[in-house]
Amino acid sequence: MSLKGGIKTAMLREAYNGDRLIDRDPLLEINDNFIELLAEGHKQREEELNLKNKRLKRIWIRCQ
Q: Are the C-beta atoms of residues 40 and 34 closer than 8 Å to each other?
């Protein structure tokens, strides 16, 4: 936001037609892709831990 010369100006990084988004900021696309990758990694890690826990439970049951 600029306040030079008593004029208040705001620069939007996206374009809207009324309340409809018509041009999305490319940085938001990158951010969304990054968040998806993080979520995928967390999901994969959770699945790996679940498999490991199941294997350990089977081994523990056999040893009793």
A: no
